[in-house]
Amino acid sequence: MSTTHTPSEAPPNRQRGKGLAAGQLGLLAVVVLGISTIAPAYVLTSTLGPTVQAIGPYLPAIFIVGFIPMFLVALGYRELNADSPDSGTTFTWVTKAFGPFIGWMGGWGLLAANIIVLSNLAGVAVDFFYLFLAQLTGNASLAELAANKPVNVLTCLAFMALAVWVSCRGMKTTKHVQYILVAFQLGVLAWFTVGALSRIGSVPGTEPLAFSWEWFNPFGIESFSAFALGLSLSIFAFWGWDVCLTVNEETTNGRRTSGAAAAITAVAVLAIYLAGSVATVMFAGTGETGLGLNNPDISENVFTAIAGPVMGPFAILLSLAVLSSCASSLQSTMISPARSLLAMGYYKALPDSFAKVGARSKSPVFATVVAGAISAGFYALMRFLSDNVLNDTIMALGLMICFYYGLTALACVWYFRRTAFSSARNLWFRFVFPLLGGLALVVVFLQTAVDSWDPAFGSGSELFGVGLVFVIGVGIIALGLLVMLWMRRRRPEFFRGGTLRQESPALEIPE
Q1: How many C-beta neighbours within 10 Å does residue 79 have?
Q2: pLDDT at residue 437, rounded to an integer
Q3: What φ, ψ does residue 466 adopt, rounded to 5°?
Q4: Residues in a beta bridge with 357
Q5: H-helix or E-strand containing 463?
Q6: Helix 27-38 and helix 171-198: axis angle, to 10°?
Q7: Distances in Å between the alpha carbon of 402 and those of 339, 373, 409, 449?
Q8: CB within 8 A of 226, min separation 6: which ones?
Q9: Residue 30: pLDDT above 90?
Q10: Which pairs from 129-133 meet CB under 8 Å and 24+ separation?
Q11: Whole-angstrom Cα distance, residue 426 to residue 444?
């Protein structure tokens, strides 16, 4: 059984907002959810190879540069959340600032990014699941099952179904699962980092590099295109902290706690990336053979190749850590699209079915199932279209992230335009910081879109001569325009400003 709340049918207790259970999460729980969604172990193994191929050993520089606009945008999110806490985040705030059409597309961008990354997470989980089985049993042929497309897709669907099931059970179950999985992956990552530093120069097939502060210099990167590609991948590496804002209706003192948790999450993840990337570059080097990070045979999942040389018989723990990282993120990432769909249904931008929450779980069950089903279908399609599905989807995801994060940051500037100059604090936090962050992401979006037209930008996969990265990223945005026009005919009230506008009262969030 489920219940539906809409603006015109507000629940008797306004504190419950859309029907989500309030006060289930504290600061620690929200930070754990943020780290879980970003999934440091998964991100490092997925992005180290492609990023090194783009910019060489300048990983620390590009991580720091990628962190800056994301942190500035996070400050804008914090201001919007303090003013109008809402699980719809980008959709709700951009609608309030720029109107229903741009707001709907902002929500579409968030949904698309989450659907892409859910499919990618499931793909990496499949690879490391079979690698883990091979290591556990000593049967190397089991690892090769991940390359079998039908087996790969069926396993992915099973992982997706499990993640949906856990999410549908509610936030309490999600929280307890995340505490265990996040603690495990961070512990193993620390072990791997120390192990890599201690074995520099002692493993055949590596070309160790001596530590250099030059790696922290972004001006050492050869071209702006390479810089933009590296920055796009770096932005992907930090993506996911906004889940901290998505759960604002379910967090104790959500107006403040969610914003603080987002900032803490971003800083903590930066520290993890800097330590992990420096240790990996120093250990493996950037060569094109053996364990070098530029070797195309290992770039898709770097940790698969170097876990054994670094951790010896305990390499299985790193495989299990990446698997748990993917599994935890796969489950926690369900939170954002499900609650965005819930908000879009609540404000009548989508059919009323999306506004339903489970009577027991207080979770948007219908929206979660829909998000999982679309993600699974997207993964199955991409696995058969692309020779390097993980690389292509990561690069396309960078486009989607820049699109909706940049749009939200600029919405912050416009939404607070009347109060931005009323104090020094407002000037920086409501105007300067979000404006700089938003414009930086817009520049990266445009540069990446231009570059990705060439199939060589990604894996080389193409459709009618156009790079698959461009087709995925820009094509999904174009598809959103068509869906929006269709929904305008089906749900005209929202698009006329009848359910959500700038002066609409914010939901009441308990202190």
Answers
A1: 24
A2: 93
A3: -100, 135
A4: 3
A5: strand 462-463
A6: 60
A7: 20, 25, 10, 11
A8: 54, 55
A9: yes
A10: 129/155, 129/159, 129/323, 130/155, 131/304, 131/319, 132/316, 132/319, 132/320, 132/323
A11: 26
Region label for 124, one of left (φ > 0), alpha (ψ between -120 and 50) or beta (otherwise): alpha
Sign of torsion over alpha carbons 391, 396, 398, 400 = negative
Give 4's strand partners.
Answer: 356
Query: What end-to-end distance do the CA atoms of the chain give, in Å?
Result: 29
Q: What is the four-CA torsion angle of 157, 161, 167, 170, rounded to 10 degrees? A: 180
**In 256-415, which ranges are E strands?**
356-358
The identity of residue 191, as a single letter, is W
Lowest mean pLDDT among 3-12, 254-263, 405-414: 3-12
Phi, psi of 471 (to 5 degrees): -60, -45
Using the predicted structure, report yes or no on whether residue 386 has a pLDDT greater than 70: no
Burial environment of residue 204 by CB neighbours within 10 A (0 to 12, 13 to 18, 19 or more): exposed
- Give residue 10's pLDDT: 41
Provide the 8-state DSSP code for 462: E
- Indicate the residue type of 62: I
